[in-house]
Design brief:
This protein is of the alpha/beta class. The chain has helices at about 10-20, 30-40, 85-90, 135-140, 175-180, 215-220, 240-250, 265-280, and strands spanning about 25-30, 50, 55, 80, 95-100, 105, 110, 115, 130, 145-150, 185-190, 195-200, 205-210, 230-235. The protein contains eight helices and 14 strands. The protein has an eight-stranded mixed sheet with strand order 2-1-5-10-11-12-13-14, sandwiched between helices. The chain has a two-stranded antiparallel ribbon with strand order 3-4. The protein is globular.
């Protein structure tokens, strides 16, 4: 049954979940991808194994993680690795898909999460200093393919990024293979307007699907280059009600979906909300 009411963030989480194929081993980045993993795990990808940077592999949890090393990333896990071992396995090609975000991206899917230089700025004196790679470089360089999820905003989708933190397709074509990076690189990008994919030969990003209500003109106005549009541009299917129910069950306080904190809530109310949510989840081993 199609959901009658949903938010754009919920549609982004569901669209990202749909990129995950059953049986894949998926490296999950921080933020909305964590909700996407739970949606996939509880619907069409029950045999997939989800990996978190904190070391958790194959967790089956009762709530959405709030960070890469939060308790749910280890709940009922198949194993807990040291971080060096986890990334060694990633570099060895054991991970099918990585899901990551970014602050700035170019037409070939190269991602900047290091620094926004700004007018007259440089690496030493940027306009904005960002957190850096974390595990994103390893994920983008070594997984079988990469799904990117980020907001489409003016100044984020640029002709040339200020710094390559995580390589995508570099300069396009076979540049990635010449650089001896493994895997396919970025294959999809989810934003609040739709879904982009990458041309199989040129590796240039193009708009493949629009979210309901979004327009091509809106998308093009937010991108610095003349982005290509698929000949058979499609509309993204809305979420099913089961997707919305899963998100509410595993994130009862809507933290991952951007709800504002309730400053009037005391600890007892917080505890009861979380306790009830935990008790409603029936684990399926």
């Amino acid at each position: 049954m199609i959901a009658e009411k949903y938010s754009i963030k919920e549609l982004m989480a569901v669209s990202c979940a749909r990129e995950i194929k059953n049986g894949e081993r998926v490296f999950i980045g921080i933020g909305l991808p964590m909700m996407s993993a739970l949606i996939a795990q509880n619907t069409h990808a029950k045999d997939s194994i989800f990996v978190y940077e904190g070391g958790g592999v194959g967790a089956i949890s009762r709530r959405v993680p709030w960070s890469i090393a939060d308790n749910p990333t280890a709940e009922n896990a198949l194993m807990i690795h040291e971080m060096w071992r986890l990334f060694s396995d990633t570099q060895a090609g054991f991970i099918d898909r990585g899901i990551i975000g970014g602050a700035q991206i170019d037409k070939y899917g190269n991602i900047n999460t290091t620094a926004i230089f700004g007018k007259g700025g440089n690496y030493e004196n940027p306009k904005i200093r960002l957190p850096g790679s974390g595990g994103a470089n390893d994920i983008g360089s070594s997984t079988g393919e990469t799904t990117i999820i980020m907001q489409l905003e003016k100044g984020k989708f640029v002709e040339k990024i200020d710094y390559i933190t995580t390589p995508g397709h570099l300069t396009g074509g076979d540049a990635r293979q010449k650089a001896k990076l493994v895997g396919k690189g970025p294959t999809s990008l989810i934003c609040q307007k739709g879904i982009f994919r990458f041309h199989p030969q040129t590796k240039e990003m193009y708009l493949d699907m629009l979210f309901p209500g979004a327009t091509v003109d809106e998308v093009k106005a937010l991108i610095d280059w003349d982005v290509k549009i698929a000949d058979n541009l499609k509309e993204v299917d809305p979420p099913l009600q089961i997707h919305i129910d899963i998100m509410k069950k595993y994130d009862p306080r809507q933290i991952m979906l951007g709800a504002k904190s309730n400053e009037e809530e005391d600890f007892d109310e917080f505890f009861e909300t979380m306790k009830q949510a935990y008790e409603e989840v029936v684990l399926d081993f």
